[in-house]
UniProtKB/TrEMBL annotation:
<dbReference type="GO" id="GO:0005524">
    <property type="term" value="F:ATP binding"/>
</dbReference>
<dbReference type="GO" id="GO:0016887">
    <property type="term" value="F:ATP hydrolysis activity"/>
</dbReference>
<protein>
    <submittedName>
        <fullName>ABC transporter ATP-binding protein</fullName>
    </submittedName>
</protein>
<keyword id="KW-0067">ATP-binding</keyword>
<dbReference type="Pfam" id="PF00005">
    <property type="entry name" value="ABC_tran"/>
</dbReference>
<dbReference type="InterPro" id="IPR027417">
    <property type="entry name" value="P-loop_NTPase"/>
</dbReference>
<feature type="domain" description="ABC transporter">
    <location>
        <begin position="6"/>
        <end position="235"/>
    </location>
</feature>
<keyword id="KW-0547">Nucleotide-binding</keyword>
<dbReference type="InterPro" id="IPR003593">
    <property type="entry name" value="AAA+_ATPase"/>
</dbReference>
<dbReference type="InterPro" id="IPR003439">
    <property type="entry name" value="ABC_transporter-like_ATP-bd"/>
</dbReference>
Amino acid sequence: MKETVIKTDKLTKRFGDFVATNEISLEVYKGEIFGFLGANGAGKTTAMRMLCGLSIPSSGQATIAGFDVYKQTEHIKKHIGYMSQKFSLYEDLTVLENIRFFGGIYGLSNADIKTKSEALLNELGLQDEAKTLVGSLPLGWKQKLSFSVAILHDPKIVFLDEPTGGVDPVTRRQFWDLIYNAADRGITIFVTTHYMDEAEYCNRISIMVDGRIQALDSPANLKKQFNASSMDEVFFELARGAKRGE
Ligand SMILES: Nc1ncnc2c1ncn2[C@@H]1O[C@H](COP(=O)(O)OP(=O)(O)OP(=O)(O)O)[C@@H](O)[C@H]1O
């Protein structure tokens, strides 16, 4: 049976009179790769911040890894990983120092940090760069390292906010291999992206327009539903009516 790890019911965030995220309801399952799509200003980051326990909703319900978004935000933060567009790595620390630093923040033991750093450097092929300052790494490597650090503590869910901006398709594809590996290990992936090729890699996706979820299904079913040959077409069909983000 599918295990639900994210559940929202009419989750809403208002800023004054403005409804940034409007009654979104969705369920995401363990080990699933869920794409959270929407045009600029649709309300994705606002929704994601609520799901991460960083912002209290105005109304509606949500549980993340079984914890309530109103009352148990500290528990939520312990059970998730988060990677934003401006990743949180320290540019003036080396690769290894960053891994150790975040391992410490996550409360991992020294032995655990040592084992995990070696595994991580191997997986990324960064063994020779362990002592390189993160600031001098190419963007694609920073993104991969940032993702690996965000799941260092084996969280139930990792939230990725446009994790692959600004890199070429081959580097993006390599990043997605890391995502697949993490999902195979049972980590649920909740990812926002503007790249439609990445949308195709997701098990299911939702598409937000002006604060509301307008479609939610697998890429194949959405293409059928909208009689479209690509996710680009599906997205355009829905997003062209958007009032925000112009
Ligand atoms: N703190 C805030 N106060 C007022 N309005 C806000 C605040 N945060 C976000 N908004 C507004 O809410 C709307 C949704 O913003 P949000 O950043 O969630 O969109 P998004 O879908 O993540 O867009 P993008 O893809 O550009 O990051 C936007 O119109 C934005 O201006």
